[in-house]
Specification:
Elements: E1 4-7, H1 12-22, H2 26-34, H3 40-47, H4 63-76, E2 79-83, H5 88-103, E3 107-111, H6 115-118, H7 124-132, E4 137-141, H8 148-156, E5 160-164, E6 178-180, H9 196-210, H10 219-238, H11 245-259, H12 264-272, H13 282-299, H14 303-310, H15 314-349, E7 358-362, H16 370-381, E8 385-391, E9 394-400, H17 407-412, E10 420-423, E11 427-433, H18 437-451, E12 460-463, E13 465-466, H19 474-480, E14 495-509, E15 515-522, E16 525-531, H20 538-541, E17 547-559, E18 562-574
Parallel strand pairs: 1-12, 2-3, 2-4, 4-5, 5-6, 7-8, 13-14, 16-18
Antiparallel strand pairs: 8-9, 9-11, 10-11, 14-15, 14-17, 15-16, 17-18
Helix pairs in contact: 1-2, 4-9, 5-9, 5-10, 5-14, 7-8, 9-10, 10-11, 10-13, 12-15, 13-15, 14-15, 15-16
Length: 576
């Protein structure tokens, strides 16, 4: 789809101030301004994140109460069960807390619900089973903030329930022993966007403090925390929380800790993903490690991932990592089939001129994979999308949205046709009886059409700055590297260069010719560009004397010990 280029407004005065005070280029200063970093002190903190800048855990609600209760359980030899979620954030949080509690001598085990049978979060049957197994304390990570009924059940069983979660609280807060969630705080001094594993890290820190009379953790516990930031980076990046503030600090140091980790499970997964010895960045976590760790939870049972992340046996870690690799390949094969099926439904069955939202359903789809497909359909067609996998007359749905549209609010308008619904502005889940899908589709389209214009349905490409090719250099690439890690809230800088002449012979590359490689010239400077997934543009590029404007990210391509500047294309506009 044609993208609408939206340029950030340049601020020359602030550019000059930040650039001169921090000795950076005005271009770099403008990129910082575009990300909301609008004073010298904030810019310095952004470019030089420090672990010492992490807020003390005591600022989080109920964390003192939670850590004291856990330390009491350790002293008394009570049974603590960590109840996690089956995604990367929940699994890494479970592993972090398990390793922490083992370090302080706790009687601890963990429980990960089965995605397809139990669904997300705390459930009554699991609480009953854990009580029968002797649980005295249940500690949730990455779930539980809306489990009001389940909290009452735990209290009835005499279990002290400690909830740690980062999801948005509802109108009612569970009546648990302690509820640790930064979003419950109104103070602007509390960083509210921690991931589930980020909150688990803060709780582990608080537990370590309470084992020391000076409130300083022991040297052994300090080493544990410094190593644990590797797990924090893993879950934080994979959960697509904003990589700003404390998350930026934790991921910046966490990626280094992950790269040098001695945890057997992490070493094994790095090896199987061919990442050992690599300078890790957010892309490696999001697209190489994350999918492998997520795969067992999508395809079956996720608990084996926690075993991998907590075992001391290198052999067992390698065995599980190999299993994850096979599960991920199986997930990929299923995903290809479902993606093809879903695209055909959109192209053959839906009038895109009349549909502001897409509702796709099929009995042959795997419910563990449809969320990924929904994201890809949104990316391609730029419409809020609900994918529904039907089994035994019940549809399990995953919804994803475009940036400007709150999908959960729209789904709430359709609640009369749904068995259940929950989620966030950009992602949600639902259950629906198969007989209601057609009416739900009409109702959702009606709700969406009232909120979205045709302009909203055109994808937006935010561009940091218009540049000339003469402004680009290897030194600029190195300078921009200080902005990493990139992710939600801190995207990689995108620039635009106008009126470029296409030179040489453009060519298709990739196994199926799906990508493009070509050169562009502006004045005396010619640079290679790589355009992933744009193979179909080749005919237009090959026209004699063709000029174009290109939106791109800037890369250094290393090949045969040579480094060359390269433009990675995000969009092309042809000059008519």
């Amino acid at each position: 789809m044609s993208k609408r280029w939206v340029f950030f407004p340049p601020n020359k005065t602030l550019q000059s101030e930040i650039a001169s005070k921090l000795k950076i280029s005005p271009l770099m200063a403008q990129v910082l301004i575009n990300r909301g970093v609008t004073d010298v002190a904030s810019a310095k903190n952004f470019l030089q994140p420090q672990l010492a800048a992490l807020a003390d855990p005591s600022f989080l609600p109920d964390i003192e109460k939670a850590s004291i209760r856990i330390n009491e359980a350790v002293r008394k030899g009570e049974n603590i069960v960590i109840y996690g979620d089956y995604d990367v954030d929940g699994l890494s949080a479970t592993a972090l807390m398990y390793r922490c509690l083992k370090l302080v001598g706790a009687q601890v085990s963990y429980y990960i619900p089965e995605r397809l049978e139990e669904g997300y979060g705390l459930n009554a049957d699991a609480i009953k089973k854990l009580k029968e197994g002797g649980a005295d304390v249940i500690l949730t990570v990455d779930c539980g903030i809306n489990a009001c009924n389940e909290a009452d059940i735990a209290r009835m069983y005499g279990i002290d329930l400690i909830i740690t979660d980062h999801h948005q609280p509802g109108q009612q807060i569970p009546n648990a022993f302690a509820v640790v969630n930064p979003k419950l705080m109104t103070s602007s001094n509390v960083f509210k966007d921690l991931s589930g594993v980020g909150i688990a890290f803060k709780l582990a820190w608080a537990i370590g403090q309470h084992f020391s009379p000076q409130k300083r953790v022991s040297p052994e516990f300090k080493d544990f925390l410094l190593n644990a930031v590797g797990l924090v980076a893993l879950g934080t990046i994979a959960d697509v929380v904003p990589l700003v503030g404390e998350n930026r600090i934790l991921t910046k140091y966490g990626l280094s800790a992950l790269q040098h980790t001695e945890i057997p499970g992490l070493r094994a997964i790095l090896d199987i993903a061919d990442l050992s010895g690599t300078n890790l960045d957010a892309f490696h976590v999001g697209f190489r490690l994350g999918p492998r760790i997520n795969a067992p939870g999508r395809m079956g049972r996720a608990g084996i991932v926690v075993e991998m992340l907590t075992t001391t046996s290198k052999e067992r870690a390698v065995e599980i990592a190999n299993f994850l690799e096979q599960e991920n390949k199986r997930r990929q094969d299923i995903q290809v089939d479902i993606m093809s099926s879903a695209r055909q439904k959109v192209l053959k069955e839906i009038n895109l001129d009349e549909s502001a939202a897409l509702v796709l359903a099929d009995c042959a789809w795997h419910p563990g994979v449809i969320g990924i497909i929904a994201s890809k359909i949104v990316e391609e067609f730029n419409r809020p999308t609900v994918m529904i996998a039907i089994a035994d007359e019940i549809g399990h749905g995953s919804a994803r949205s475009i940036p400007s549209f709150h999908i959960l609010e729209a789904l709430e308008c359709c609640r009369s046709k749904l068995l259940s619904v929950g989620g966030h502005a950009q992602a949600a889940g639902l259950k629906i009886h198969a007989d209601n899908i057609n009416e739900f589709r009409e109702m959702l389209n009606s709700a969406t059409s009232q909120r979205l214009t045709r302009t909203d349905l055109q994808p937006i490409l935010n561009i940091d700055l218009e540049v000339t090719l003469s402004m680009l250099s290897g030194a600029l690439v190195s300078e921009l590297g200080r902005l990493a890690p990139h992710g939600e809230g801190n995207s990689a800088p995108v620039f635009a260069a106008m009126n470029l002449k296409v030179v040489g012979q453009p060519r298709r590359i990739g196994t199926k010719g799906q990508h493009l490689s070509f050169y562009v010239r502006q004045g005396d400077i010619a640079l290679r560009t790589i355009a992933f997934g744009m193979g179909d543009y080749i005919d237009r590029l090959q026209q004699n004397g063709r000029t174009c404007s290109v939106a791109f990210t800037l890369k250094m391509n290393t090949w045969m010990n040579n480094e060359n500047l390269e433009l990675e294309v995000k969009d092309i506009k042809f000059d008519e």
